[in-house]
Amino acid sequence: KNWAAPWTNEEQTVFTPLNDYTATVIGSVRDGIDFRRILWDDILYVGNVGGISPYANNNNDHYEDLEALGPVTGNLADSNILQGVSQSAVTQSAASSAPTDIGVPSNATAGIMTSRAASMAFFSDGTNRAMFRFTLMNQMCTDLEPLKDVSRTPDRVRQDVSRSPGGDSRIFLNSCVGCHAGMDGMAGAFANFEWQYAGDDKSTGFIEHTPGVVSLKHLINPSNFEDGYITTGNSWVNYWRNGQNWLLGWGPAVNPDSQGNETGNGARALGQELANSQAFAQCQVDKVFETVCLRGPSEFINDIAGGVQDRVTRDSIVGRFTSTYNYNMREVFTDVAAHCRGS
């Protein structure tokens, strides 16, 4: 839980209750499933024990009750207590008792990205770009700034982005477009999602997915640049397959355009695009290093030999993770623990 909890909120704090996002990560590692599935599959882990609230779309009581049971009756290492289920089946079943709570259909689920916790953190307010940014940070170990590439096509940059911030178009051309060209190209995958809540309490809200309907947040501030991109659906394009960000190690293209940019529709397809990258695989190993060894694989101070050995070992584990282990995170924890034993 402590490993995954910071990924579930913008503050990146570990001090947050158990939720469907962290439970799904815990179960996925415990069961040794292909960890790429957390970004695209119709998957969710829920508690299967008496005396706790049922899963609900508009509160987190189910997971907080499970956590309150303690390490014996609420033991998340027990597959009889924490079980993997179909995310769409659970959320749509929960919606039956509250008609306004619209469960995400199976063809639109995208693992943790469409979990209740992630939706509350990254789909609420804003423009849904936060979901894309924090997925990069949490699952590819990079932020937008290192990926800035002003040479990418800006045709997907939305109307709400000024092309002359402060009256100076050079700022957009030399800075803003570097992030927005790639981000807006892919963040359109979330066009049909919204976090609905009343008043100031986001915690009682619910995820809303409306097929074929673009949420109004994608159309805000059109006067900032009227000739900007108008979102009409959930299509996306990955312009970062070309230019400097090919170094993220994208997997084989499934539906490339004439320039070799991968294209798709919806969060699930985008999740597959991100999860099949080399950056995703290396990020998972790096995060395990930081958790088990209490350092990243490049953080040896005043010990060049030790730092080199960490990186060599990291690269070797990444290779096994993507091939021999079939993306089984349990094996990664085992290998990293063996490498760091005694340190």
User: What share of the residues lie within helices?
Assistant: 25-40%
**Based on the structure, what is the oligomeric state of the protein chains?**
single chain
Distance between the termini: 24 Å
Mean pLDDT across every amino acid position: 94
Give the overall shape: globular
Describe the structure.
By secondary structure, this protein is mainly alpha-helical. Helix content is 37%, strand content 7%. It contains eleven helices and six strands. The chain has helices at 20-31, 61-68, 70-73, 87-95, 116-122, 129-139, 169-187, 266-275, 278-292, 304-322, 329-340; strands at 44-47, 82-85, 193-196, 206-209, 235-238, 262-265. The strands form three sheets. It has a two-stranded antiparallel sheet with strand order 1-2. It has a two-stranded antiparallel sheet with strand order 3-4. α5 (116-122) crosses α6. The radius of gyration is 21 Å and the shape is globular. It starts with 19 loop residues before the first helix and ends with a helix. The model has no long low-confidence stretch (mean pLDDT 94).
Give a quick rundown of the structure.
The protein has helices spanning 20-31, 61-68, 70-73, 87-95, 116-122, 129-139, 169-187, 266-275, 278-292, 304-322, 329-340, and strands at residues 44-47, 82-85, 193-196, 206-209, 235-238, 262-265. The chain is mainly alpha-helical and 343 residues long.
Annotation keywords:
343 residues, mainly alpha, two-stranded antiparallel ribbon
List the helices and strands and how they pair.
Elements: H1 20-31, E1 44-47, H2 61-68, H3 70-73, E2 82-85, H4 87-95, H5 116-122, H6 129-139, H7 169-187, E3 193-196, E4 206-209, E5 235-238, E6 262-265, H8 266-275, H9 278-292, H10 304-322, H11 329-340
Antiparallel strand pairs: 1-2, 3-4, 5-6
